[in-house]
């Protein structure tokens, strides 16, 4: 089985390959009446599309979205929403040497081990280009969440050894890295130039902050909100770790440092700090949700690497084709989209969690 869907209440199925005719998504479970246009979705896709700086793949794609179904007179109809982006700049002949040899760090070997057959053109289904369907669906989920007062702020926290520490997340500078600190962005550029000169690649960290999520979203066991968010973000290619709140740092803290105190502010229960990153016991606590995603260096590099062919011959492989020297800047909106899908799914699952809420709904 090749499961291509995410979510059980707001369900997204992505489809397509990097060098096929097109890619896209089908969204099931979006309520009727949400105003939605191709421009709403295009704004998201434009943040992800390739060819926008020298630090991303040189593949030139417009990534123009077409809404094929589920929207009438500018509003969702409550029926499946089908979204499509056509591929226009495939150069499949560049991939001849990976048809029968395995790229270190990519999905070639494991895909073959599972299916015994693969579309090797640009990684096929395992290409980062699959994230088009995720981002197009994330745009719809974000529009829905925005109408409920839930918003996202996502940015590059580090690239290689260059990280940003003291900054205002709202000030995302319009640099090639979506990094809210222009000095750090310049340093990241210098670091990447060195990597590129060495025919090498770099990784980094993306931070996503979600505001406006009320207390009470998520479940106490299994489908914990932190587990749902982590699963959503870990399912993106090249993501190797996810942290919520203080994340792995808590292993080095004492309870007296890590615990967030409670207080009353404006007659409401509030916290004195947010080490937990907005989720306790698997359920949102009403404060900002803070998630970090750790992205590995792009596996396809052009310096010679040791590998084997599917026939078991040892070879030295130089990878051709057009690849991202760093994945992080283009993955910022992918992380945001997967978080939006997870929050929407959790929200819809929550609708029937309390009898008083159901009674209120039917009391009119
Ligand atoms: C937006 C995006 C762009 C990517 N670009 C590339 C790329 O240009 N070259 C490459 O080899 N891998 C790229 N990747 C990563 C691979 O798709 C990924 O490493 C591969 O599928 C193996 O999966 P894994 O790293 O999760 O094990 C990209 C991933 C994303 C999300
Ligand atoms: C084209 C995109 O990124 C691609 C992600 C990717 C990979 O292996 O993940 C490999 C490269 O493309 P191709 O599939 O042609 O080899 C990247 O250019 C895109 O994301 O739109």
Automatic annotation (TrEMBL):
Keyword Magnesium: no
Keywords noted in UniProt: Amino-acid biosynthesis, Aromatic amino acid biosynthesis, FAD, Flavoprotein, FMN, Lyase, NADP
Enzyme class: lyase
Signal peptide (from-to): none
GO molecular function, one term: chorismate synthase activity
Classification via CDD domains: Chorismate_synthase
Pfam families documented for this protein: Chorismate_synt
EC number of this enzyme: 4.2.3.5
Catalytic activity: 5-O-(1-carboxyvinyl)-3-phosphoshikimate = chorismate + phosphate
Residues the entry annotates as binding FMN: 125-127, 281, 296-300, 322
Gene3D superfamilies found in the cross-reference section: Chorismate synthase AroC
InterPro entries for the chain: Chorismate_synth, Chorismate_synth_AroC_sf, Chorismate_synthase_CS
Positions with a binding annotation for NADP(+): 48, 54
Pathway assigned in UniProt: Metabolic intermediate biosynthesis; chorismate biosynthesis; chorismate from D-erythrose 4-phosphate and phosphoenolpyruvate: step 7/7
Cofactor(s) it depends on: FMNH2
Co-factor binding comment: Reduced FMN (FMNH(2)).
Role played: This reaction introduces a second double bond into the aromatic ring system.
Similarity comment: family membership: Belongs to the chorismate synthase family.
UniProt-listed NCBIfam families: aroC, PRK05382.1
Description of how the protein assembles with itself and partners: Homotetramer.
Protein name (database record): Chorismate synthase
Species: Blautia intestinalis
């Amino acid at each position: 089985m090749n499961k291509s869907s995410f979510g059980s209440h707001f369900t997204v199925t992505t489809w397509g390959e990097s060098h096929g005719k097109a890619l896209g998504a089908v969204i099931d479970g979006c309520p009727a009446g949400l105003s939605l246009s191709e421009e709403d979705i295009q704004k998201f896709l434009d943040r992800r599309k390739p060819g926008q700086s020298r630090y991303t793949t040189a593949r030139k794609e417009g990534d123009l979205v077409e809404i094929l179904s589920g929207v009438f007179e500018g509003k969702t109809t409550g029926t499946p929403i089908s979204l499509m982006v056509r591929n226009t700049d495939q150069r499949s002949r560049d991939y001849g040497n990976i048809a029968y040899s395995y790229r270190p760090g990519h999905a070639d070997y494991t895909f073959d081990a599972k299916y015994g057959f693969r579309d090797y053109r640009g990684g096929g289904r395992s290409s980062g280009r699959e994230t088009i369907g995720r981002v197009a669906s994330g745009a719809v989920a974000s529009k829905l969440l925005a109408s409920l007062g839930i918003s996202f702020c996502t940015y590059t926290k580090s690239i290689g050894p260059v990280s940003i520490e003291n900054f205002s997340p709202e000030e995302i500078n319009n640099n090639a890295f979506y990094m809210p600190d222009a000095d750090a962005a310049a340093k990241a550029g210098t670091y990447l130039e060195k990597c590129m000169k060495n025919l090498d690649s770099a990784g980094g960290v993306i931070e996503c902050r979600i505001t406006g999520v009320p207390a009470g979203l998520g479940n106490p066991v299994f489908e914990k909100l932190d587990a749902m968010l982590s699963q959503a973000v870990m399912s993106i290619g090249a993501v190797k770790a996810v942290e919520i709140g203080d994340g792995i740092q808590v292993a080095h803290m004492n309870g007296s440092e890590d615990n967030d105190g409670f207080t009353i502010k404006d007659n409401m229960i509030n916290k004195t700090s947010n080490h937990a990153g907005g989720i306790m016991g698997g359920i949102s606590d009403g404060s900002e949700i803070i998630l970090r995603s750790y992205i590995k260096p792009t596996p396809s590099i052009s310096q010679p690497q040791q590998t084997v062919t599917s026939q078991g011959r040892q070879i030295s492989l130089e990878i051709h084709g057009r690849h991202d020297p760093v994945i992080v800047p283009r993955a910022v909106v992918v992380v945001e989209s997967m978080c939006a899908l997870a929050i929407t799914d959790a929200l819809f699952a929550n609708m029937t969690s309390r009898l008083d809420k159901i009674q209120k709904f039917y009391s009119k």
